[in-house]
Amino acid sequence: MDEHKLPIDQILSGDCIEILDSLPEKSIDLIFADPPYNLQLSQELWRPNLTKVDAVSDSWDQFPSFEEYDEFTRNWLAACRRVLKDTGTIWVIGSYHNIYRVGGILQDLGFWILNDIVWVKTNPMPNFRGVRFTNAHETLLWAQKDKGARYTFNYRDMKALNDGLQMRSDWVLPICTGVERIKLNGQKAHSTQKPEALLYRIILSSSNPSDMVLDPFFGTGTTGAVARKLHRHWIGIERDEEYIRVAQERINGIQVPAYDEALFASSSGRKARRVPFSRLLETGLILPGQTLCLGEGNIEAIVRADASILSGELAGSIHKVAKQLLDAPANGWEKWYYTDEYGQKYPIDRLRKKYLEMEKGES
Predict the structure, then answer these.
(1) How far apart are CA 5 and CA 24, in angstroms?
(2) Cα within 13 Å of Cα(251), Cβ side
(3) What is the rounded distance in angstroms from the CA atom of residue 348 to the CA atom of residue 358?
(4) Under 8 Å CB-to-CB from 216, ≥6 apart: which residues?
(5) Residue 103 and residue 115: Cα distance in Å, rounded?
(6) What's the pLDDT at 363?
(7) What is the chain's Cα-based Rg?
(8) 177-189: b or e for each residue (b if 16 or more CB lie within 10 Å)?
(9) Minimal CA–CA distance to 30: which of 230, 307, 275, 258?
(10) Would you give the DSSP letter of residue 43?
(11) What region does 38 belong to: left with phi over 0, alpha with psi -120 to 50, or beta?
(12) Cβ proximity of 246 and 189 under 8 Å
């Protein structure tokens, strides 16, 4: 693997720690991790009607001791920390079996916990033996790489998603059932498949379109499926070939409309501050000779060193040339598109916002 290139929108087969170590340092914007919970199940579970409970008994969830589980957790979290950008965040989900151990190791490695989110399940599995409370929730830890660093939190998006009310840290959502639950030969394809609604909140709140989202325990691909729907790039790591096959088939079947900033960009930003187009050239976000497209069509323009653009015989500012070509008033920031390093097209207004973020980081 080229150390300078990311395998975008791909499932990587193999051990998560080895593959994380092969990825470029500080290249990931958001990590969601659904690691083994180490449930320590010692016997089969049966319902009162004598039918067997389909519990998590997979070999990947079994560890000989807490010490070995802690070592495994420390190693994969350290590998995640290396690839996470300084402005990035990580989400880890778990149950009472493991989340407290994970939280302590997160803090030992230098992560700063921003929130713990309680996923309250509307339809949890009952406690059939009647010897404990029904386990009706799981916990998510949301942490930034270093305390005080800038990070993405789309507050207004989450408020809008919650009918105009500030979103709280208790998320009431059903477990993955019905048509969403992937099955093979009538059996669950994966014993711990997470609902898309859960990943939707995580990815929408903590990343922006074209950001890179990584899942080191990809399973049947819920993270990749939701990332694709929200126009984020993604990387999945998974060692089980059957899970990989199911996840790839699932993601390939998702049809996503072309990117439209009005639909997918965060509403959390304030009114755009004026920035000269020349500033993008001066900071290297746009280069002289670079080609821009009018919308996502075939009309092109070349960027000149003086920050004007040239389309055929028309020359002038991004606004003037767009207005002449469209024969209507036009905001050049929204009308001209560039192509990023992954071959995706976005309005140049995205680069203006990136410049403002760079400026903010330097202040």
Answers:
(1) 7
(2) 27
(3) 15
(4) 16, 19, 20, 31, 33, 35, 76, 79, 80, 237
(5) 11
(6) 43
(7) 23
(8) eeeeebeeeeeeb
(9) 230
(10) S
(11) left
(12) yes
Residues of the chain predicted below pLDDT 50? 1-3, 42-53, 55, 270-271, 363
Q: What's the CATH code, domain 10-264?
A: 3.40.50.150
With 0-12 / 13-18 / 19 or more C-beta atoms within 10 angstroms meaning exposed / middle / buried, residue 70 is middle
Q: Is the dihedral of CA 314, 317, 320, 323 positive or negative?
A: positive
Angle between helices 241-252 and 222-229 (to 10 degrees): 20
CA 287 to chain CA mean position, Å: 29
**Is residue 329 within 8 Å of 319, Cβ to Cβ?**
no
Q: How many C-beta neighbours within 10 Å does residue 277 have? A: 20
Q: Please count the CA atoms within 13 angstroms of the CA of 232 that sit on its side-chain side.
A: 28
Residue 46 is given by DSSP the state B
The secondary structure element, H or E, covering residue 243 is: helix 241-252
Residue 183 bridge partners (DSSP): 188
- Which pLDDT does position 301 carry in this prediction? 95
Residue 160 dihedral angles phi and psi, to the nearest 5°: -65, -40
